[in-house]
């Protein structure tokens, strides 16, 4: 009977433990921890060269604009809830804010729809002054106190003047983030579209400016054929070149990233931008309360399972248990056998 008493005490203890743990799960408790989040403004280049199809797998299955949008949607899936994302577009020489950063998880569908809806036809000008567009995006991110992700192929149209990249007037590193180069390394024709968005060919050499004829002419202008300081300060002959072909301008974008204090990543060499962004920015920590009620609930369930297993074991033991007998127990060839 001592053994049965011990087993009864075990069952009672397990039952009481399951009850106490269930009550604890019902009452609930939370664990507060610091979680790193992202707070970022994403600006996407929507100029004509971003329609070049040299991205995706297989190569050429996506345009640069499509690849940038898909990467940004994947970014939302890679960052934790309570992260915030804002959206802007770049064309001509400024970046335009569509909306400021909002929480990712609660606004996921709206954010995905806004990103998917970005189109090259939203551009208000055809020029592409990448440097000035990036500087404008840095100013926007600074005003929002957000980090920055700037998607572009780096294709300046018209090309940079002989004086080179305009100076950045802000403080390098005041805004953290990434310049993301989008596009392949091989020069690829830029698609040409009609007003309704139907492709009607590719740009030719005469369709795009091959040099920059805004501002003062370069020092060698006087040596060009047909030069006239008043009527033809850049010479009389049209410029030639291959600006109708486009590739990601890695060296140019790395220089711009250095000037602004941002980091550079090339989309054709990375599968996701979240790791690069987090390593390029200061940690943004947010106290997050996690409901831990599942822990006592699981322990209560475990206690009940152990109780059930113990009951099954005891039932099997009792069925196989032979108690002492004081009467006839068996017969063999007509002879009575008595118990000891």
What do these coordinates show?
The protein contains seven helices and 14 strands. It folds into two domains: 2-29 and 294-338, no CATH class; 33-208 and 243-290, Rossmann fold (3-Layer(aba) Sandwich), CATH 3.40.50.410. The strands form five sheets. The protein has a six-stranded mixed sheet, sandwiched between helices. A two-stranded antiparallel sheet has the order 1-12. It starts with a helix and ends with a strand. The protein has helices at residues 2-27, 64-78, 108-116, 130-144, 250-260, 274-280, 294-320; strands at 30-37, 39-45, 84-91, 94-103, 147-152, 177-181, 188-189, 191-193, 199-202, 245-246, 263-266, 284-291, 328-332, 335-338. α1 (2-27) packs antiparallel against α7 (294-320). β3 (84-91) and β4 (94-103) form a beta hairpin. By secondary structure, it is α/β, with parallel strands linked by helices.
| Biggest sheet details | 6 strands, mixed
* Low-confidence residue ranges: 329-340
SSE succession: HEEHEEHHEEEEEEHEHEHEE
* Share of helical residues: 25-40%
**How many domains is the backbone divided into?**
2
Rounded to the nearest angstrom, the distance between the terminal CA atoms is 21 Å
CATH architecture of the largest domain: 3-Layer(aba) Sandwich
| Residue-averaged pLDDT | 88
């Amino acid at each position: 009977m001592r053994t049965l008493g011990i087993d009864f005490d075990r069952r009672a203890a397990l039952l009481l433990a399951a009850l106490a743990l269930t009550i604890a799960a019902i009452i609930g408790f939370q664990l507060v921890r610091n979680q790193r989040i992202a707070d970022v403004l994403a600006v996407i280049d929507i100029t004509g060269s971003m329609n070049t199809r040299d991205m995706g797998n297989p190569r050429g299955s996506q345009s640069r604009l499509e690849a940038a949008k898909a990467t940004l949607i994947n970014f939302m899936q890679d960052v934790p809830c309570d992260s915030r994302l804002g959206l802007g577009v770049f064309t001509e020489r400024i970046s335009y804010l569509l909306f400021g950063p909002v929480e990712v998880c609660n606004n996921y569908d709206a954010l995905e729809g806004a990103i998917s809806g970005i189109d090259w036809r939203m551009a208000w000008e055809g020029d592409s002054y990448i440097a000035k567009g990036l500087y404008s995006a840095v100013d926007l991110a600074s005003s929002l106190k957000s980090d920055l992700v700037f998607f572009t192929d780096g294709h300046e149209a018209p090309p940079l003047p002989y004086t080179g990249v305009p100076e950045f007037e802000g403080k390098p590193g005041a805004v953290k983030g990434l310049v993301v180069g989008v596009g392949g390394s091989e020069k690829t024709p830029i698609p040409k579209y009609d007003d309704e968005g139907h492709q009607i060919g590719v740009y030719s050499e005469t369709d795009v400016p091959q040099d920059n004829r805004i501002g003062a002419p370069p020092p060698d202008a006087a040596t060009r054929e047909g030069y006239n300081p008043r009527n033809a300060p850049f010479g009389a002959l049209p410029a030639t070149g291959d600006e109708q072909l486009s590739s990601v301008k890695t060296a140019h974008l790395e220089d711009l990233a250095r000037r602004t204090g941002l980091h550079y990543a090339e989309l054709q060499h990375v599968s996701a931008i979240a790791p690069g962004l987090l390593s390029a920015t200061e940690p943004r920590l947010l106290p997050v309360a996690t409901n831990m009620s599942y822990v006592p609930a699981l322990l209560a369930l475990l206690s009940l399972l152990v109780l059930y297993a113990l009951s099954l074991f005891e039932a099997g033991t009792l069925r196989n248990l032979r108690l002492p007998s004081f009467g006839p127990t068996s017969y063999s060839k007509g002879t009575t056998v008595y118990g000891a």
